[in-house]
Amino acid sequence: MTDYSRTPDYTATGVHRVVSPLSDAPTEIRAETATSVGPGPGSRSAAVTRGRGPGAGRVLLAVLGFTLLGLVSLFVVVYLVSGLGATSVIVAAILALVPLGIVVWGVRWIDRWEPEPRLALTFAFLWGAGASVFIALAVDAEIQSIVAAAGGPGASAEFLGAAVQAPIVEEVAKGLGVFILFLAVRRRFDGPVDGIVYAAVVAGGFAFTENILYFGVAFVDGGALGQTFFVRGLMSPFAHVMFTAAIGLALGFAARRGARFPVFAFGVGLVPAIALHAFWNGALFFVGDFYGYYLLVQVPMFVIAVAIVSLLRRQEGRIIGERLAEYAAVGWFHPQEVAMLTSKRGRRTAERWARGVGLGSTMRAFIRDATLLAYARQRIIGGRDQIGAQLDEAELLRRVTSARHALAAPGVRTQ
């Protein structure tokens, strides 16, 4: 049997930015990819060799980062409980899970082609729910101290707080989390869809904590908890997501273009994020019919945002298809495998078949690694090999080949 762990020429591209075609796949791999993997009789299990994990330095930074986020989040929890009481916070948190669940569903819909690493998404949520809220509270406390020392708030203090202070402070705080992820997981931050996903999770975390505060206050005061929940939880679960998505979108386009000026891209995205947030908060001071304003202004804005995301998702699928087709042309994939990998229905069908023959995890690994391979190739073409795209390509080709060898083993091969 061929030793696929030592198959030569896994790099497939030149040392510098790619301007030449991919190298042909080794003969034994071309022979195997002459037949596609997919639904067929029988089953046979095989192990897929995993790649090397992150280095010790990255692990240490991750541990320190999560520890710090945990402490900050604990402070926020203590702040909420001390101000509202444990019962109110529990009730409010249960209610806040509803809009959070809607956001999570939206993120899963957006992130269907290349799901982001769970640790990165966890960091994004904790940053939004903990660190960004802590920053907003700290800045607000400092501003309140300055205002009090100056003689107290003026007549326009409420408007300035809602339409100026909150948009600037909150979007900067949330955006910093997206920017940190841009720097920390650059090998997985490939384009605007990834930026929107990370921004949406950060914003969803921030909105979760903010909703606990609003719902808790309404519960303690015996006020209109039902109306507050309806407006914030059901009518506008994506409000913060839409604001902060502008930052993720800008950083995503910067990543696709080589990420040479990430701070500038952050600033470019921050401007519309603050503007959208200020427009949302400020309009409430001038609009008499909130529901009419919501239907005439906010709903169309949301529809436009969904349309933009849909176009970006379609573009992402096209990029995956184009890059994998290049590998198929030189023997690394069967054309039918490329068709399967660029179709959501094809992926579901392949996973369902693989589960039936006891290779569900292997097929999921094959799909995931093939998608990552397409993005590694895209990074090389875009001149981003300084973040290790060619090393990723070599490792991913090895893993894809190992997974296919398991899937195409005697008894599970199909024409």
From TrEMBL:
Q: Tell me a Gene Ontology molecular-function term this record carries.
A: peptidase activity
- Name listed for the protein in its UniProt record: RsiW-degrading membrane proteinase PrsW (M82 family)
Signal peptide (residue range) = none
Q: Does the keyword Transmembrane helix apply?
A: yes
| Highest taxon in the source lineage | Bacteria
Q: Which residues cross the membrane?
A: 59-81, 87-107, 119-139, 159-184, 196-217, 229-254, 261-280, 292-312
State the residue spans of region: Disordered.
31-50
Q: Which UniProt keywords apply?
A: Membrane, Transmembrane, Transmembrane helix
